[in-house]
Amino acid sequence: MERQGKSTMGFGVLPLMEYIARRAFLAAGLRPSTVTLPSTSGDGEARTIHYWAPPGDPRLPPLLLIHGFGPMATWQWRRQVGPFSRRFHVIVPDLLCFGASSSSPPPSESAQAAALLDALPSLVGMAARVAVAGTSYGGFVAYAMARAAGPARVGPVVISNSDLLKTAEDDGAFLERAGGGWTHPADVLMPLDARGARRLMELTFYRKQASAMLPDFVIRDIMKKLFSDKREEKIELMNATTVGTDAFQLTPLAQDVLLIWGDHDQIFPLDKAFAVKSCLGDHVRLEIIKKTGHVPQMEDPDRFNKIVLDFLLGSQGSPSNEHNH
């Protein structure tokens, strides 16, 4: 009986996380839905993207929030949907191989971007221009969307803690920072035991997390639930990423770009922010959020939200400005 109680306690944390996130999204007027993508393969197999958005046609300028590799898109953006939805038609998709979206075949970040662009007519209409914001891996996708579609379709771009210049050497340095026995970044970023989970929390957050106080057996159960789902697909997804390979060349964007970084990021260190900024052209603003790590939108949401809203509402040619004219 004790073993069953322990397991139930572990899994009880996840429904609580899901409840908290879901409540934030519902309070912001967002509802869950799915969109079927046009078939790109000969087998005719339908691919779907699950997303949250206000029902009906957009009455406000659209803003796409793209999640990273961490658990649940809703959990990563739960502190943003309320403030952002007062000025924007906020859309939060699950990327392919995540959440309730289709999971095969595992795509590159450019293919993720293409899938989101394919979904846009159903999400915002044929002509609407959408602002995009991506965190970590989601920043890779946001960049790929902006580059592929151009400024007529994708407007201002927010990229948070995304090392668009990542190389194999950076992966090696990350494994050194993580310390002890990991051979691939996926081992660190998708832990299945309590030791790995605690180390990932230390690398991700600057501030001590309440979840670090949980007993090992609870953390282990949570990790197995979070990271065993579609695990092989996510590992393939990491391997399919073109950032850091010869197939990818970082080039400036025509759009206004806001680059946000936590000053204590141990996954993509702050020095990479300046290197990325120098490669992205003249339309780039870099904002560093102090006393945060890899996810400033979670650690200092008030500061993050103010920076993003000020940028989006003031951006030249932003969707909101066009909407108001």
TrEMBL record:
Q: Which Pfam families match?
A: Abhydrolase_6
Using the record's annotation, list all stretches that form the AB hydrolase-1 domain: 63-306
> By its UniProt entry, which SUPFAM superfamilies does this protein fall under?
alpha/beta-Hydrolases
InterPro entries assigned: AB_hydrolase_1 (IPR000073), AB_hydrolase_fold (IPR029058), Meta-cleavage_hydrolase (IPR052370)
User: Could you tell me what this protein is called?
Assistant: AB hydrolase-1 domain-containing protein
The organism's superkingdom is given as Eukaryota
